[in-house]
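User: Sequence in, structure out. Go.
Assistant: Echoing your sequence, followed by the C-alpha cells.
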Amino acid sequence: MKPIIVTFEVQREGQKSRLFRFAEPAITIGFNAKCNLSLEPYNDSGAELLLQGDTEPCTLKVKGAQGVFLLNGKACTADAPVKASDVISTGSTKVIIRNLSGSAATPLEHPEATSSDKASIDKTLYNHDGHKSDLAAKAASSEISHMAGLPDESATKGPATATSATKAPSPAPAEKPAAEPLKKTPPKPGLSYLYLFFAPVQQYLSDDDVSEIMINGPAQIYIERKGKLTPVPEKFASEQALQAALMNVARSVGRFFDKENPRLDARLPDGSRVHAVMPPLSRAGTIVAIRKFRREKLTMDQLVQFGSITKEGARLIDVIVKIGRNLIVSGATSSGKTSVLNVLSSLIPDNDRILVLEDASELQLQQNHKVCFETRKPDEYGKGEVTIRDLLHSALRLRPDRIVVGEIRSGEALDLLQAMNTGHEGSMSTIHANSPRDSLLRMETCALLSGIEIPLSALREQVASAIHVVIQTARLHDGTRKITAVTEVLGLKDREYQLQDIYVFRNEGLAADGKITGRHVFTGYKPTFLQTAQQHGLDITGLFEP
C-alpha cells in the first residue's frame, strides 16, 4: 500500500496551533497514546479514526465509538471521503487537513490571523514515486517538523500528541537561507518515503562511493568513502528529528525503537543495514550506523578487478563452493564478510534449493530457487520473538540443499554445526574473528551459548568435522579490503585444530602513496578435496604446480 503524506494543523482554544506531518500507509487519529495523532492520550474514550489512502480520494473510517468526532461539522458515523481543507473536530480541538497526497484538492493556505509571530515555511518533498510535491504552509509554530508527527520541541515517545504539542513554543528564529541537501543529489525514482526523514544524509545514501554513514547524535555525521572516514557538515534539525527517522524505519520492518526498545537492528528498502542506539545508553544522542550495499550485485570478476583476489584464487573458491564444501567467512568488523558471502552464494548451482536465514535481510542471492527468512523481535508485550535458532529448526524441515546464515553470533552456531554434519553440505555463514583459527574457537564459544551442555572435546570434534574451509577477509590500513587467506580445516590432532593455508595474501609494505603493496600466492599445499573436484569435472591441479 502506498503511503499517505499528510499535514495536520491541530488547533485548541487559547493555544497556538501546531503542524504535524506523517508519511504512513494508514494514519490513526484518536485519544489512545498509540494513535499516530493522539489528541488526549490520558483520556481514552475508545473513539478512533483511520485515514487510508488505498482509494481515491482518501477515506476516513470510524473505529470504536461513533459520533465522538465531527467531519466538517457533521457527526462521523460512517466511512467518508476526505480532502485537503476538511476539518475534523472533537470538543475544543480542531484538526485541519492542510495537505493530503492523493487528494485532488490543493494544499490549503494557513489562515493569516492564526498568530502574530507566524513563520513562513516552504519545504520541497519527494513522494514515494520519486516526484516532487510542494508543501507550502504558513504556521504559528516556528517550523514544520521533519518527524513522524512529532513537533520539534516535543520529547514524547512514539506517536504525536496534541496535548504535548500545545506548549508555548519559543519565538520564531530569524529567517535564514534554507539548506538544500536534496538539490545536491535528488532522490532517484522509486525511493521509499522513508528517505524523506533522512534528508540531511540523502546525498550520501545516493552516492555509490559511500559505503557507510555514521551519525553520532544529530550534530555530528561521518561517512566512509573508499575505505576512509570523513566528517561532513550536514546535521539533523534535532534529536527528535533523528529519532523520528529511526522510528519510521523500525515500523517499516515491524520493530520498535523507543525507551523500552532502545536498540534497533533494521534495514532500509534498498537493503542497507541500520543499527541505532538511543539515549541514555548513548551519551551523545542517538547513534546510528547505516551500512550500505551496492545497488549492483557484486561479482567475483569485480573482486578480481578491485584486487581483492586474483583470477586463480577466484577459480579455487569457485570449485570449493561447487563441490559443496562447508564454508565460514571470517573477518573483523567492516572487512567485507557479507559482500564476500554474497559473491560465494552466487556461485551455488541453480538446481540447489537454498534457504537463507538472517537477522536483517542483506544477502542478494541471484538463484531462482531460494527461500529467504528473517528473524523477528518480540512485540511490546515481549511475545512473538523468532530467532535464528528457530529459523534453523524450521529450515531443516523444509528440505534444504544448502543453508546460508547471514552471521553467527550466539547459540545458533550449534544448530548450524549439526546441520552441516547431517548432509547439508555446501552450507555457509560469516563470523567475527581475526584469523581462521580464531574463527573456529569463536564457533566453539557461540555454540556453548546455546544452553546445551556438551563436553568441549565433543564440541571441538563437531566443529572440526563440520567446517571444511575458512575464507579470511580483512580491511587493510589503506582502506582496501582483501581476501587474505583460504584455509582448509584438517580435523584435530592432540585435541587441537589442524589448519593449512591454501592461498594467502603476502603484505610487502607501503608504497610512496601510502598504498599497501603485496601479492596473493598459493602456498604449495595441495588440498584434500582435489580428487572430489576431479570427480565433479573440475580439475584445478594446475593451480598448485610450481
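User: And one key feature?
Assistant: The first helix runs from residue 162 to 165.
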